[in-house]
Amino acid sequence: MKRIAIQPQDFDVAAELAALETLGGGGVASFTGVVRGGGGLVALELEHYPAMTQAQVERIAEDAMARWPLLGVSVIHRFGRLEPGARIVFVGTASRHRAAALESCAFLIDWLKSHAPFWKKEHFEDGATSWVEPRAEDDAKARGWGA
Amino acid sequence: MLTIVYFAWVREAVGLDEERVERPAPGSTVADIVATLAARGGGHAEAFADPARLRAALDQRFVGMDAPVGDARELALFPPVTGG
């Protein structure tokens, strides 16, 4: 199973996990990314490259399925304006082996950060805005998985 | 014609989501197009002053700045991605 969704609306984590659990693998791992508050942040605006995003995330999911024996991969990435506490991204993997489920989940979220065409803009309560800069450690984590 | 699409602060600096330009000379690279755009001045100069801050895709595939444009239909120019 490969499920990729690029959407503005929220998603149901329990339903996504339940779908992975039905694949008979015995192991399901997941990561949910949530907008971090603090520092006067009122919203995060996620822009993406609509013509590219779906195909690129599919390629990333296929990379994971080629590297690990997976029965299922789900990736959901939201775009648009998201407030602190809102879910941004979900990655779920199902496998017969826990190491494959856990490692591929970590790979997918690292790879999404550095290989999916999304950009985040922060909006603050004083009206200021700022484009998020990539973090060197995120690039290093992605490189750690090899090209 | 070649369609160029912009994202994030590159889009804001240029002031356009996309534009169409004459096809570049054979053998031109992404970097050559960026240099041509920067030479226009104004928002383009601001957006493209420092190519090291830019990333690119040709027909929706990431490429390096030294990639030949070839017969690609769409060039995208944008900052490093920050999804996830």
Kindly summarize this structure in a few lines.
With 147 residues, chain A is an alpha+beta fold. Chain A has helices at residues 13-21, 50-67, 98-115, 136-144, and strands at 2-7, 27-34, 41-48, 70-78, 80-82, 87-95, 118-124, 129-131. Chain A has a single domain, classed as Molybdopterin biosynthesis MoaE subunit (Aldehyde Oxidoreductase, domain 3, Alpha-Beta Complex), CATH 3.90.1170.
Question: What would the keywords be for this entry?
Answer:
heterodimer, A: 147 residues, alpha+beta, Aldehyde Oxidoreductase, domain 3, 4-stranded mixed β-sheet, 4-stranded antiparallel β-sheet, 8 strands, 36% strand, B: 84 residues, Ubiquitin-like (UB roll), 5-stranded mixed β-sheet, 3 helices, 5 strands
Task: Explain this structure.
The complex is a heterodimer of chains A (147) and B (84). Chain A has 147 residues and is α+β, with helices and mostly antiparallel strands. Chain A has one domain: Molybdopterin biosynthesis MoaE subunit (Aldehyde Oxidoreductase, domain 3), CATH 3.90.1170. Chain A is 37% helix and 36% strand. Chain A is built from 4 helices and 8 strands. In chain A, a hairpin with a 4-residue loop joins strand 7 and strand 8. Chain A is globular, with a radius of gyration of 16 Å. By secondary structure, chain B is an alpha+beta fold. Chain B has a single domain (2-78), classed as Ubiquitin-like (UB roll) (Roll), CATH 3.10.20. Chain B is 27% helix and 25% strand. Chain B has 3 helices and 5 strands, in the order βαβααβββ. Chain B has helices at 8-14, 30-38, 42-48, and strands at 2-6, 18-21, 55-58, 61-63, 74-78. Chain B has a 5-stranded mixed sheet. In chain B, strand 3 (55-58) and strand 4 form a beta hairpin. The mean pLDDT of chain B is 96.
